[in-house]
Amino acid sequence: MNIWEIIVITLIKILIVFTLLLLTVSYLVYFERKISAWAQNRIGPNRTGWKGALQPFADVGKLLLKEDIVPVNASKVVHTLAPVIALFVAFTTFAVIPIGPDIKLFGYNIQLVAADVNIGILYVLALTSLGVYAITFAGWSSGSKYSLLGGIRSSAQMISYEISMGFSVAGVLLLAGSLRPYDIVYSQSGWLWNAVIQPIGFITFFVSAFAETNRLPFDLPEAEPELVGGYHTEYSSMKFASFFLAEYANMIISGALIVTLYLGGWHFPWLESFGLAPWLVVAIQILTFIFKLAFILFFFMWVRWSIPRFRYDQLMNLGWKVMFPLSLLNLVWVAIVVMYIKP
Predict the structure, then answer these.
(1) Which residues pair with 109 in a beta bridge?
(2) What is the pTM of this model?
């Protein structure tokens, strides 16, 4: 392929990923409300469209028509910049996560990832660490004590749990011997999923993902009973919607990372031995990735409506006194596996 064909194919993949992320985020909000209704024996959205299926679009329309209010004491530039950073981080991180193997299409070999880079996992960790700036900027620039407390809580929480997350990922990288997401997925062929080989790393990464996405029981930066709305108390209209979109996009990215790093990515165990047509194998593998991701997202929502919020001291104690030592223990275990067990 020449350079222009590569650019066109990449732009098409970016457009597809962006569109699918927006649609998925919209319907995650819908399913969040439906799952909460199921957990609480209610009906949930059921008026707008068939069984409330058009409710996400009605919500977006409502937020678009709302007035954008900026507090008098706010730092207006930073106040506007914060949701932009949140959206940028949320929608660019997914670029390096593959959803399936290479496919042949119109005579081209197409990779099912927007950008296949050798340092993909490092790229993800670098971008996700920027997410704390969006929340900190939002809290500081709003000129509100509630927002400031939410921003400070978030920065402390995300820094604490990023350490455990980083050590958990280090175990995966040791086993795969690569930072490239494709290589990590291929290293988990069959049932050699990292969740089986290093269950402690899987659990610590999973719990850290809850903390990084500010989901219950770790949503202390928002904590409505204490901080009104936390860091986005003083946001309205599409700026508030941007934070909302970013939160659910971060859920999708966290789920996709869990699937890629620990659940074998698109691998369906021993699928190639069934003697199916190549196009059918690829289709099943893509559906396998989607099914795994959907289950992880359902689990995120299930936990939110099942477990109460931690106290702040409990959250920090868990991060430093439990998660951090466990992630180090997992790293030692993986190092032993690599040295003495793995061929």
Answers:
(1) 104
(2) 0.90
Backbone CA torsion sign across 212, 214, 215, 216: positive
Say if residues 79 and 70 touch (Cβ distance below 8 Å). Answer: yes
Structure tokens at 95: 């670029």
Is residue 251 within 8 Å of residue 21, measured between CB atoms?
Answer: no
Name the nearest CA neighbour of 234 among 64, 65, 62, 74. 74
| CB-CB neighbours of 72 under 10 Å | 6
Residue 26 CA: distances (Å) to CA of 30, 52, 300: 7, 13, 16
Cβ 135 vs Cβ 143: under 8 Å: no
Dig out the tokens for 192 from the structure: 């050699």
Measured CA distances, 164 to 36, 209, 267, 316 (Å):
29, 10, 26, 12
Choose among 302, 242, 278: nearest CA to 39: 302
CA distance 202 to 301: 19
Strands (E), 107-176: 108-110
Contacts 24+ apart (CB under 8 A), 240-243: 240/63, 240/83, 241/60, 241/63, 241/64, 242/83, 242/84, 242/86, 242/87, 243/83, 243/86, 243/134, 243/138
The pLDDT score that the predictor gives to residue 292 is 94
Q: Round to whole Å and give the CA distance between 105 and 121.
A: 27
The dihedral through the CA atoms of 143, 126, 256, 27 has a sign that is: positive
How high does pLDDT run on average in the chain?
Answer: 85
> Alpha-carbon torsion 317, 252, 298, 280, what sign?
negative
Cα gap 218→75, rounded to integer Å? 28
What pLDDT, on the 0 to 100 scale, is given for residue 1?
A: 64
Cα angle at 68 between 66 and 70, to 5 degrees?
150
**Positive/negative CA dihedral, 298, 119, 270, 196:** negative
